Amino acid sequence: MKHLITILFIAFTLNANAQELLTLSGKITDGSKPFPGVNVQVKGTEIGTTTDNNGQFSLDLKEGNYILVISSISKPKEIKGNLTENSFISIDMSDSFVVLEEVLVSAVRVKSTSPVTHSNVTKEELEKRNLGQDIPMLLNYLPSVTSSSDAGAGVGYTYIRVRGSDASRINVTLNGIPYNDTESQGTFWVNLGDFTSSTENMQLQRGVGTSTNGSGAFGASLNLLTNAISENSYGEISSSVGSYNTFKNTVKFSTGKINDHIEFSGRLSKISSDGYIDRASADLKSYFLQAAYVDDNTLIKAITFGNKEKTYQAWYGLSAEELKEDRKQNPYTYDNETDNYWQDHYQLHWNEKLNNNWSTNLGLNYTKGEGYFEQFKEGSAVSKYNNIVEATDTDWYGTPATDLIVRRWLDNDFYVANFNVDYKKNEFEVISGISFSNYTGDHFGEVIWAKQFTPEASIRDRYYFSDAKKNEFSIFSKVSVKLNDELSSFIDLQGRFVNYKTDGLTSGRDLLNVDKSYKFFNPKLGLTYEFNNNNSVYASYARGNREPNRDDFKNGPNVNNEILDDFELGYRLKNEVFNLNTNLYYMLYKNQLIQTGGLNDVGDYLRENVKDSYRFGLEIDANIKISNTLSINQNLTLSTNKIKNFILERDGESKNIGTTNIAFSPSIIAANAISYAPLKNLQISILSKYVGEQYLSNTDTKASKLDSYFINDFNLTYELKTKSIFKSIIFSGLINNVLNKEYVDRGYTFLDYWSTPGSSFEVQGYYPQATRNFLIGATLKF
User: Fold this and answer.
1) Which of 160, 184, 331, 737 is the most buried (most CB within 10 A)?
2) Is residue 311 very low, low, confident or very high in pLDDT (cuts 50, 70, 90)?
3) Residue 579: CA count within 13 A, CB half-sphere
4) Is residue 358 left, alpha or beta, with left meaning phi > 0 and alpha meaning psi from -120 to 50?
């Protein structure tokens, strides 16, 4: 491979120098103001750059016709031209509705020059690998990110971690609307089937980041902007097929702007997969519909999207013995041991540009969710079922028991209202906003079959019930000001007020009565110093506060809220050949709710408070343009993640086992992407990912150590231009785990008794991931 890369490098360098290059430079503005951080890409190639702090850019190109794609955090704008000599162009974005699109997410996003560590992902980057896998798998190659899948192949229940923090600690917003489940605080990507096909771009902020709506960010925040308005009508039919009977079919359309103001667009998708693990199947059906109105100062969007999913149980993984015996086996044999959930979202966004200085955004949301998990219980104690069933046997404790089938339901409603005001003048900007949300949810269980019902019972009688209500109100103000030519500041203040109530019984028929209120103040501030147009440094401090989730209250009444102080120090270098983002972070936690490594009865990780803990790391993200056709993107995270004076409690005893590693927090995460475009419409990428050793528990025992792994993927896209019927046909291919590595990226452990460092007495479960597998697809555009 090294020799191949060397040969390619020499050949492409000679080819690039064979013809004299011309310089195309320019300046992009928002009215009279420079527009920094804008992406400038030559369509159909890997050639591109971003504007500097003065809104300027420069590209070296051969003579010819080109289309420049101009994009920031909104819909790209195309500029066509013929380059015959060194040229300079000016592009004013202020008269475009693109600026109005940005208001949808401006309250929760940051600009490229902000003192917040972040990564942007464009629609074009997502499309290259969008062949059916969920969003966590598509983000796997970002800095400090790891992803996993219950079924092993990236479809169904999938998971993402950033800096070792799981998805329940990653704030996710869709168009500024909170998406995390209000009670569990988790993110269920299985309910966003093929949502990538309706996503314009994403921004991942690592650390506390800027103030956002919804649950506090304790590892990262991820916000998604859905499809921007299309100027022109289009249609797309996309299909893909792959290993493990994986199929994806998508139909998309847009009317384009009717009478220059109105657009209708939509998507229908179906994804199915048997999964790498036996019977770890997933069946996802989803839709996205949008009606929009736009003029010079107004953008109104009415959006609805939803998903219906059915996934077979695979979240308890395999024991070490089962893994060694057959890593694809699934020990759950009841043919309908499935999760079934429906979720529909309704959003209304009204953006208004009042004048050159003032703009506003109103966002309204209603989400309806309903579904159940069906499970066969063999020899289960009848006392757990509220006298609905009679005993036909005894369990291994001698307790009266029987066989039965239950469905455990969740029925919830979620309302959100956001309002933001944005004021800009010269080098001064203030964004202020409020957000209110109301959640209600019913938890209940039904017995749908039993060997023997009691005489007075009826099928679907409930054996437990609890209701929950959660109200949240937040208010924030963010100020960005340039103090002089080199120094700019950022101040972000947020107040967040939460009330959570639940009353009734858990699925184990234990009382759960909670009535808690929290008042949080989350200050954030930072400075950016620009040495010149290419070099800058930044420093920031942010505090985050976070309330416990429902499971935390179930596990113990004395659970505490968490506090995080996040310190970031970064350096950025940007020029035509080399882009570098590097930063040090120190995340200091008080009462962090860490995952113990054990699971509850629906496969979620258990958590407990630890008094003092921290994450300290170095992140390096580099993009090197070797030639106009060859580029390399690399990132590396080196970290140490520790609990100070960890108290292990077992069998009523407590023992201080000293400083230990935080579970699921590898000290090394690295990724590499080599992209080569030998032809205008062809791109080939080799993607590599290394994740170092990590622990399944917080005790540093040898038995809970998970080995490191190194995997490689191969991605190819080719666009065929056609002259009739279709505008183009795009062929895509993805080979995951090219080297056929057998690896495990996640697991769990139960400590049933004392386990000191070095002990092998633990009970583990593992989630094997797929060996070599493929996905291929075609998209017809017309």
Assistant:
1) 160
2) very high
3) 18
4) beta
Read off the DSSP letter of residue 597: E
**For 278-357, where are the E strands, in sequence order?**
282-294, 298-312, 338-353
Q: What is the pTM of this model?
A: 0.87
181: number of Cβ within 10 Å: 23
Q: What's the rounded mean pLDDT across residues 52-77? A: 78
pLDDT (tens digit, 9 = 90+) per residue, 230-276?
888 999 999 999 999 999 999 999 999 999 899 999 999 999 999 99
16 by DSSP, 3-state: which? helix
Phi, psi of 501 (to 5 degrees): -130, 135
Average model confidence (pLDDT) across the chain? 89
Q: What is the pLDDT of residues 351-384, one digit of tens each?
A: 998 988 899 999 999 999 999 999 999 999 999 9
CATH fold for domain 223-781: Maltoporin; Chain A (2.40.170)
Tokens of 179: 């998406």
Give the per-residue pLDDT at 758. 44
pLDDT band at 761 (very low <50, low <70, confident <90, very high): very low
Q: Please enumerate in sequence order all residues whose Cβ is within 8 A of that of 601, keeping only pairs 6 or more positions apart, or say none.
A: 507, 508
Q: Count of CB atoms within 10 A of residue 778's CB?
A: 16
Task: Extract the runs of DSSP E, i.e. beta strands, from 19-108.
Answer: 22-30, 33-34, 39-42, 48-50, 56-61, 64-71, 77-83, 87-92
Distance spanning both ends of the chain, measured CA to CA = 39
Q: How far apart are CA 357 and CA 500, in angstroms?
A: 39
Note whether 316 and 603 are within 8 A (CB): yes
In CATH, what number does 1-96 get?
Answer: 2.60.40.1120
Distance of CA 335 to the CA centre of its chain: 31
The answer to whether 266 and 319 are in contact (CB under 8 A) is: no
The letter for the amino acid at 507 is: S
Residues 103-132: tens digit of each pLDDT: 677 778 888 889 999 999 988 899 999 999
Q: In 3D, which of 453, 414, 450 has the Cα closest to residue 435?
A: 414
The label of the residue with tokens 């408070």 reads: 609
C-alpha to C-alpha distance for 403 and 406, rounded to whole angstroms: 10
Does 223-781 match 1-96 at the fold level? no
Identify the pLDDT of residue 12. 40
Q: If you average pLDDT over residues 638-644, what whole number do you get?
A: 97
Rounded to whole angstroms, what are the CA distances from 778 to 267, 675, 693, 717, 733? 16, 20, 38, 9, 9
Distances (CA, A) of 646 to 447, 592, 612, 662, 689: 42, 12, 9, 10, 31
Instruction: Record the tokens describing residue 139, joined without a space.
Output: 């983000």
Q: Which residues contact 753 (CB under 8 A, 6 or more apart)?
A: 650, 651, 761
Residue spans of the domains in the chain: they are 1-96, 223-781
Q: Report pLDDT for 86.
A: 87
Which of 667, 483, 508, 525 is CA-nearest to residue 600?
Answer: 508
The reported pLDDT for the residue numbered 7 is 37
Q: What is the pLDDT of residue 101?
A: 66
Stretch (H or E) spanning 105: helix 98-106
Burial group, residue 86, by CB count within 10 angstroms (0-12, 13-18, 19+): exposed
In eight-state DSSP terms, residue 454 is: -
